[in-house]
Write a structure and sequence with these properties.
This protein is an alpha+beta fold and 333 residues long. It has 15 helices and nine strands. The longest helix has 15 residues. It is globular and about 55 Å long. The chain binds a DNA duplex (15 and 15 nucleotides) through α6, α12 and α13.
DNA sequence: GCTTAACCTGGACGC
DNA sequence: GCGTCCAGGTTAAGC
């Protein structure tokens, strides 16, 4: 079960008990995927093992840094061996090489980002978690979003029983407690003052109101949008008070399998103005401009435009020095 | 249909 | 130490 030794990156001893999965033909750049701003709850420990929560499972994953074709080492807690959950979450069914070829033909200027972050994948996140995590994103910083979302889970989620809790870098030797993301029922009964104390600020009452509204529709309403078209899902989401076009696109792309969704935030806007639509520079981000920018990505990158924009987005983040991990790609090792 | 201000808050920055 | 600005947006009012 344990891997062979590697001189470049010693296999962490903490991987004892982990499984090994060969990513044959399905590259995965673990660090780029988990640090590219899709999800705010994954953390790396001192041995560079990534720890997160998928649904009701705590998950540990490790891969040799900058080697998207190297094996993935993984384990789930408290129920071990749930590979199907990990494969689904990281969307390993998607053939990246075919996408790279098509994107490069359509827009050669994406080549550097593809090379730097080869194996970056979009996640298939639980819809409720994605919906509320990105509620926190408005006028906020990534560090604060991560803190707010983690505190929300700790306050209103359920602790996960991990039989052999991993130590995490920030607190060596301390047992790490994992929490599920809160249910709609828990969020509907949340205390606004507590949320404000957790840095949710003016977003706090909106979170509670949205949870109550979603419950009134159906506990499974968000997940049911996976069966809808992109246009239908986007329209349904933006009809909710507090959900604009950008947030709707984040949920569509990161949780609802709408691969053509392009969340136009400040970074994606700047990239599009620089590469595709310089004539729109100086224009306010009205709904019409938002659509024009997103359509520009879709016109070039097709039905997986949302994946392509994630590469450009992450490259822009790194340029802006807004990333935390210096070893996200092979070039960085 | 576009522009603007308000909404929380902590960190970076200039003075 | 203090003031100002900014950060992965959304909404409503005013024009």
């Amino acid at each position: 079960m344990l891997p062979s030794h590697s001189d470049r990156n010693p296999i962490p001893s903490a991987l004892s008990g982990f499984h090994r999965h060969e990513l044959t033909g399905r590259p995965l750049n673990l660090s780029a995927t988990l640090a590219s701003g899709q999800n705010f709850r994954w953390r790396q420990d001192s041995e560079r093992i990534w720890w997160g929560v998928i649904g009701d499972l705590a998950v540990g994953v490790w891969q040799e840094a900058g080697q998207p074709d190297s094996p993935l080492f993984w384990q789930t807690f408290p129920e071990p061996g749930r590979w199907e959950v990990i494969a689904d979450y990281f969307r390993l069914e998607v053939d990246l090489e075919a996408l790279y070829a098509a994107w490069s033909r359509a827009e050669p200027r994406i080549a550097d980002a593809l090379t730097a972050f080869r194996g970056l994948r979009l996640l298939r996140q639980p819809p409720v978690e994605c919906f509320f995590a990105f509620q926190c994103a408005a006028c906020n910083t990534v560090v604060k979003i991560e803190r707010s979302v983690s505190q929300l889970a700790a306050r209103y989620g359920e602790p996960l029983a991990v039989s052999r809790p991993p130590a995490v870098a920030a607190n060596p030797g301390e047992e790490r407690i994992f929490y599920t993301f809160p249910t709609l029922e828990a969020l509907a009964q949340a205390d606004e003052r507590a949320l404000r104390a957790d840095l949710w600020g003016y977003r706090a009452p909106r979170v509670i109101a949205l949870a109550r509204h979603l419950l009134s529709l159906s506990p499974d309403w968000l997940a049911s949008l996976r069966q809808a078209s992109y246009a239908e899902a986007h329209a349904a989401l933006t009809a909710l008070h507090g959900v604009g076009a950008k947030l709707a696109d984040c949920i569509c792309l990161f949780a609802l399998d709408k691969d053509e969704a392009v969340p136009v935030d400040t970074h994606i806007r700047q990239i599009a103005l620089r590469l595709f639509l310089p004539d729109l520079a100086g224009k306010s981000l009205t709904p019409r401009v938002y659509s024009a920018l997103a359509d520009a990505y879709r016109a070039r990158f097709g039905p997986y435009a949302g994946w392509a924009q994630q590469y450009l987005f992450f490259a822009e983040l790194r340029r802006a020095d807004a990333y935390r991990d210096p070893a996200l790609s092979g070039a960085a090792d």
